[in-house]
Automatic annotation (TrEMBL):
GO terms for cellular component: plasma membrane. Its EC number is 7.2.2.21. It catalyses: Cd(2+)(in) + ATP + H2O = Cd(2+)(out) + ADP + phosphate + H(+). Its main location: membrane. Belongs to the cation transport ATPase (P-type) (TC 3.A.3) family. Type IB subfamily. The lineage of its organism: Bacteria, Bacillati, Bacillota, Bacilli, Bacillales. Gene3D superfamilies: 3.30.70.100, Calcium-transporting ATPase, cytoplasmic domain N, Calcium-transporting ATPase, cytoplasmic transduction domain A, HAD superfamily/HAD-like. The chain crosses the membrane at residues 75-93, 99-117, 301-321, 333-354, 634-653, 659-682. It is a multi-pass membrane protein. GO terms for molecular function: ATP binding; ATP hydrolysis activity; metal ion binding; P-type cadmium transporter activity. Keywords: ATP-binding, Cadmium, Cell membrane, Hydrolase, Ion transport, Membrane, Metal-binding, Nucleotide-binding, Phosphoprotein, Translocase, Transmembrane, Transmembrane helix, Transport. It is found in: Cell membrane. It is an enzyme of class 7 (translocase). This is Cd(2+)-exporting ATPase.
Length: 687
């Protein structure tokens, strides 16, 4: 299948009609034309000339086609000319030059309404009922009863309406296109001591590229030379530059600010973070929410229903109530115009596209409109603890020395300096913070599951948990200190020489600085329950929950037990699960919405419905607020569209409905839903 960008699509119904025509061509099976994304996918062997011809019937064209790339939708110019002619005809009519005014009215109708008229005639022959069919019947009826002025108004306003409908969707697409343009195109590759420009698609893992100031980093990699600040906003949504130096990871698509960096590529571009973002965003455009599907099904039956109502208005009053045939026909034609489902069909796609684009710019990827819609309805959020609420990296919180603290740190760091265990590294880091100069031990013996012992400066020391030591070494004071740290949820590491305990360390997983603020924000925006699910022991879990403000805690959970808890929560609420590890993937998959940390494991990111590209939760409350704004906007759009149409239809009872009012009510609804949806893009502050 080949993909083409299509410009000039005027409405969702028109795109669907074009899609059906393309599907009827040889090799057209499986062709898709998506109005939201403006993308056409067709078989490589399809006759592209015939595809162009079909697209041209609606003023659409292939954007990258050399023969059509300079074309623009002429609808606005045609409508402008029609409006000028209409005003001229009004003047001639005022001067009682009726013959000339009728000719000019007809010319104005032809300029702005001929495409609709032709498409409508074809639809009538095929018994296909959509807005073009309604407009064509209305125009034919207006000609039949001699309402040339009203027919011209209908054609002109419908043309304006169609243009504005396309403009609103194009504005939402253009905002998304700006995001997609973040992708780099070329890289400066170092090969055999020489530098040459290559396409990013040709880069392989292990290649070394030079990134100069102002250039985009071509793909994910690691800095092997140089130092600079890098703007990662395109990936993570973070506004502040991040300092990068030797050994640090960088994202493809991020911008190098001032220094020259030599980056070794760790992922081909197609596997890079930016490529995944762009793929997910494009994929998300193609999905339809249950509400969108319902609206399209509703419009399919709604249009024929409106035609029946119109026929009733035309025939019943003159046949049963001796009303004027002219007036009844006129009212029936107005009902046809009111019945156009333009605004109703447009109520959802612009808002969804705007919401997904807005979140993507913030570094929050929503993998489809249905997930955005569900995210806006979430009332309970469950969090994994390690790596989500905490940093997933142990750090020393307490140092209790029964002699000299610096000596305790020196001995402990010397022993642990040869170990790669996370607890050992936490103690070494603590010594570094206190500027303690430690050294490697002369001898070391490891005790699996307990700790280690070794010789430092000719003396044997032991370090580890309680199992490493004889119980007679634990005085009442040491037991009290240890018990207090246990109650605080700390992991305890003891240090002793051959005669006594020298001191102990309390170690905990460090809580993220932003976690408490984020939990508070979530409660403030209406999240009823925040839940922490963890495999850690209960005291630690409760201590972390208390510090950050989580309302419910469940500890000592295996991955399958996390799933059971999620299922239990889902019985009473719409539930989101936030995690970053492989063990979180099952729970992410079962929740109504799975939310993964972007720097978590690939399995969590692949499973999740929403991906936070940052290594923290700060964008989560705003993402939920945007999703809720989208849901409110869609509901309001539907309500306004139906209310305006219902009000216009009620005007038929006293006979006040005119073609002018009918088309203005339809156009007003379309303009309103388009602008309201685009406000999602324009509004900057959400919480």
């Amino acid at each position: 299948m080949k993909e083409y960008e299509i410009k000039g699509l005027t409405c969702a119904n028109c795109a669907r009609a074009l899609e059906e025509q393309i599907q009827s061509l040889p090799y057209g099976d499986g062709a898709t034309l998506n109005y939201n994304s403006g993308k056409l996918r067709v078989h490589e062997r399809i006759d592209l000339e015939k595809v162009r011809t079909i697209l041209a019937t609606d003023g659409a064209y292939i954007a990258d086609d050399e023969q059509t790339q300079k074309k623009r939708n002429p609808l606005l110019y045609l409508v402008g000319a029609s409006l000028f002619l209409f005003l001229m005809a009004l003047v001639l009519e005022h001067l009682d030059i009726d013959g000339a005014s009728i000719v000019i009215y007809m010319t104005a109708i032809a300029l702005s309404g001929y495409k609709t008229f032709v498409k409508g005639l074809k639809n009538i022959i095929r018994f296909r009922f959509n807005m073009d069919t309604l407009m064509t019947i209305a125009l034919i009826g207006a000609f039949g009863i001699g309402e040339w002025k009203e027919a011209a108004v209908v054609a002109i306003l419908f043309g304006i309406n169609e243009y504005l409908e396309g403009l609103g969707m194009e504005r939402a697409r253009r905002s998304l296109d700006m995001l997609l343009k973040q992708a780099p195109k070329e890289a400066l590759l170092i090969s055999n001591g020489n530098m040459r420009v290559v396409s990013i698609d040709s880069l392989q893992v292990g290649d070394v590229v030079v990134v100069r100031p102002g250039e985009k980093i071509p793909s994910d990699g690691v800095v092997i030379e140089g130092k600079s600040s890098v703007n990662e906003a395109a990936i993570t949504g973070e506004a502040m530059p991040i300092e990068k130096e030797l050994g640090m990871n960088v994202y493809g698509g991020s911008i190098n600010n001032e220094g020259v960096l030599h980056v070794q590529i760790t992922k081909q571009y197609k596997d890079s973070s930016l490529a995944k973002i762009l793929h997910l965003v494009q994929e998300a455009q193609e999905t339809k929410t249950p509400l969108e599907l319902f609206i399209h099904r509703f419009a399919k039956y709604y249009t024929p229903f409106i035609m029946i109502v119109s026929l009733f208005v035309m025939l019943v009053p003159p046949l049963w109530f001796e009303a004027s045939w002219h007036d009844s026909l006129y009212q029936g034609l107005a009902v046809l115009i009111v019945g156009c489902p333009c605004a109703l069909i447009l109520s959802s796609p612009i808002a969804l596209l705007a919401g997904m684009t807005r979140n993507a710019k913030n570094g929050v990827l929503v993998k489809g409109g249905v997930h955005l819609e569900t995210l806006g309805r979430v009332r309970t959020i469950a969090f994994d603890k390690t790596g989500t609420i905490t940093k997933g990296k142990p750090h020393v919180t307490n140092v209790i020395a029964y002699s000299d603290e610096n000596e305790l740190l020196y001995i402990a760091a010397s022993l642990e300096s040869v170990s790669s265990h996370p607890l050992a590294q936490a103690i070494v880091q603590k010594a570094k913070q206190h500027h303690i100069a430690y050294k490697q031990p002369e001898q070391v013996e490891t005790r699996t599951g307990s700790g280690m012992e070794g010789k430092v400066d000719g003396i044997w020391y032991r370090i580890g948990n309680e199992r490493m030591f004889d119980h007679q070494l634990f005085t009442e004071q040491i037991q009290q200190d240890a018990e207090k740290l246990k109650c605080e949820g700390r992991t305890i590491v003891f240090v002793a020489d051959e005669q006594r305990i020298l001191g102990l360390f309390g170690i905990a997983d460090e809580i993220r600085e932003e976690s408490k603020k984020i939990i508070q924000q979530l409660h403030r925006i209406g999240i009823r329950r925040t839940v922490m699910l963890t495999g850690d022991h209960e005291k630690t879990a409760k201590q972390v929950a208390k510090q950050v403000g989580v309302t419910h805690t469940f500890a000592k959970l295996l991955p399958e037990q996390k799933v059971e808890k999620i299922k239990e929560l889902m019985k009473t609420d719409i539930v989101a699960m936030v995690g970053d590890g492989m063990n979180d993937a099952p729970a992410l998959a079962h929740a109504h919405v799975g939310i993964a940390m972007g720097k978590g494991t690939d399995s969590a990111i692949e499973t999740a419905d929403v991906v936070l590209m940052q290594d923290h939760l700060e964008k989560l409350p705003e993402a939920i607020v945007i999703a809720r704004r989208v849901n409110r906007t869609i509901r309001l759009n539907i309500a306004i569209a139906l209310l305006l149409k219902a009000t216009a239809l009620l005007l038929t009872i006293p006979g006040w409905l005119t073609l002018w009012i009918a088309i203005l009510s339809d156009m007003g609804a379309t303009i309103f839903v388009s602008i309201l949806s685009l406000f999602i893009l324009w509004e900057k502050r959400t919480i």
